[in-house]
Specification:
about 45% helix; 4 strands; 4 helices; about 120 residues
Amino acid sequence: MGKKIKSVEDLNAIRDGARKGLDLRVSAREMQVTVHMGTCGIAAGAREVLLAIASELGEEGSSKVLLRQAGCAGLCDREPMITVVDKSGVEYRYGKLDGAKAREIVREHILGGRPVAALLIR
């Protein structure tokens, strides 16, 4: 079970944490990151990738990224996959990911502006 709520401050902290997580998924942003969560993606580890991205974005306090989920992108042999769309509309698709690779993409590409060529699907 979770932490016991003993005060209004505890309740407010829970609310603020939930809002921060929701804000990553619904607000307009400069960059959009889609984690492909079809059956094949989930079986290949897409949940780990989603959690790693959300965690890394949370640690950086980024407010420029919209994190979302979508179904299968049709490249099941490349799962888990993400698609990154920058503010100019350029699309980058990354595949065969895990948590560590997802964190690298967040640091280098999403926050740093440098696509990770070795992980791109060509």
